[in-house]
Design goal:
The complex is a heterodimer.
Chain A (H helix, E strand, L loop, with lengths): L6 E14 L3 E8 L3 E7 L18 E7 L5 E10 L2 H4 L2 H17 L7 H16 L5 H15 L18 E4 L4 E4 L9 E3 L2 H12 L2 H4 L6 H19 L5 H11 L2
Parallel strand pairs in A: 3-5
Antiparallel strand pairs in A: 1-2, 1-4, 2-3, 4-5, 6-7, 6-8
Chain B lengths: L10 H11 L6 H13 L2 H17 L1 E2 L6 E2 L5 H4 L4 E8 L2 H9 L5 E5 L17 H8 L6 E4 L5 H14 L6 E3 L15 H9 L5
Parallel strand pairs in B: 3-4, 3-5, 5-6
Antiparallel strand pairs in B: 1-2
The chains are: A alpha+beta, B alpha/beta.
């Protein structure tokens, strides 16, 4: 070890791993204090690696890392929670895969964001036990909020007046509701029903435990999914690829 | 590194270096070294290498039954008379067939998916040999399908998916056991592996 090397401990959720060299994995971790970081887990692709199962994606793991010249290196890893019940249910697993890809795409490296870390952990625990039917939509909107894109849902984004019930649309360019008096200057205007607006407001003002009782059906669910997907596409400017297989699962497997 | 702006290097050599450089695990320096080595080899040896490369492109096909890489169609394993044709072991890659064959404890046939479902990289069932597998088991009297994908997140996802879509056609679908590797160490085992090893314990 030289003077520039530093050893530190952190908990993290393993977002993904990609093969590196002959037997290593390059991990993408989400940590409470440093946000998203990358680290090398040497030898972890070998069957008998002591890191092996501890550095799989979807593991909540306690790490000891040492700072390297370019990348941090994993020196110890110990699973805190492997979310086994998520792994063994095809729907939950694919919801979790979507969540991890979304966080990976929406965050930058080394930008600490404790809210996102806590949100992800809470949602994973909820997914493992008794997930609410709208857990995914809640997670999406909260991730949008915690990434700095909280949509304005009460006052018109153009004239700042209070929005009247059922007299509103949603502007992607301004990131919020628009009253009927204001003429939109951009093209990205979506219709937004009162029911969906109320669900969005509910998500932003309540925490996970309150979502449990919320049920959204039929056209309202379609509209909710559409508006969230539009906001995400607008912010990310690229696709969250896991959504394709997730929809496939919802459509073809009960 | 690109050689295009180096007129001092002979053009055919540049072409070879660039081609070698595209191989997995071969960097610019190794590509150079390999190319200069090939210049010094005998003509027979060099032609042999070239012929071997052409042969794999011209003579290698995917087996019409198991989709494994083969030169005869159906492949060697699928045409053996003494294999149990009513058992199919589903694997991710052709190399997995070799590993399983080395155990000498499986007498059935295989099905090679050529990959694994990986939602985040956009690889779904359509990109794999899943439809071929369904066609293969539909209406046939298959006794058992063994899901032998890796015990990784993607492998488990693929196994669960295959189980769901195959269960209308096959009565017995099994998954390779997950637990401790030979020569492993309990101290370093993760909780998912350990709890599965406990559940799968056997009387001695």
């Amino acid at each position: 070890m030289n003077a520039f090397q530093k050893i530190y401990k952190t908990q993290a959720i393993v977002l993904k791993h990609i093969p590196l060299g002959e037997a290593d994995y390059l991990l993408t971790l989400y940590t409470p204090d440093n946000g998203k970081i990358k680290a090398v887990a040497r030898g972890s692709r070998k069957m008998k690696s002591k890191l092996g199962g501890h550095v799989e994606p979807l593991m909540h793991t306690s790490f000891v890392l040492s700072t390297g010249r370019n990348l941090d290196v994993v020196s110890q890893a110990d699973v805190i929670d492997g979310f086994r019940s998520i792994r063994e249910d095809i729907q939950s697993l694919n919801v979790a895969l979507y969540m991890m890809e979304l966080v990976d795409k929406i965050t930058e490296e080394n930008q600490s964001n404790n809210n996102i870390y806590k949100l992800m952990l809470d949602c994973m625990h909820s997914l493992a036990k008794d997930p609410s039917p709208t857990l995914l939509q809640y997670f999406q909107l909260k991730t949008i909020e915690y990434s700095g894109f909280r949509p304005e849902l009460y006052n018109c984004v153009e004239c700042s007046n209070n929005i009247e019930a059922s007299k509103h649309r949603f502007s992607l360019d301004y990131g919020g509701v628009l009253c009927l008096n204001c003429k939109p200057s951009g093209m990205n205007i979506l219709p937004l029903s009162l029911a969906t607006l109320k669900v969005l407001r509910f998500f932003l003002t309540h925490d996970l435990s309150n979502i449990q009782k919320l049920r959204v059906y039929g056209d309202n669910l379609l509209e909710l999914n559409r508006i969230i997907k539009n906001i995400l596409d607008y912010i990310l400017d690229r696709e969250v690829k896991s959504s394709t297989f997730l929809s496939h699962i919802y459509e073809h497997i009960d | 590194m690109t050689y295009e702006r180096l007129p001092s290097v002979a053009a055919p050599l540049v072409k070879l270096i660039d081609a070698l450089n595209r191989l997995p695990g071969v960097g610019a320096k190794s590509a150079q070294r390999l190319a200069y080595y090939l210049i010094r080899t005998s003509e027979d040896e060099a032609k042999g290498l070239a012929a071997a490369i052409i042969a794999i492109k011209e003579n290698i096909v995917l087996c019409k039954i198991c989709r494994n890489i083969t030169e005869s169609n159906p492949c060697y394993l699928c045409s053996l008379p003494d294999r149990e044709v009513d058992k199919i072991c589903v694997v991710e890659e052709p190399l997995d067939v070799i590993s399983l064959e080395r155990t000498r404890s499986y007498r059935g046939l295989y099905h090679v998916l050529h990959g694994v479902i990986s939602p985040a990289t956009g690889i779904g069932p359509e990109q794999l040999k899943v439809e071929d597998l369904i066609e293969r088991i539909k209406g046939k009297s298959i006794v058992e399908v063994i899901l032998a994908t890796n015990p990784s997140l993607e492998g488990e996802n693929t196994a669960m998916y295959l189980h769901r879509i195959m269960s209308p056609f096959v009565s017995k679908i099994t998954r390779l056991a997950r637990g401790l590797p030979v020569g492993g160490n309990l101290e370093y085992a993760d909780e998912v592996t350990l709890s599965r090893a406990l559940e799968g314990r056997q009387e001695v």
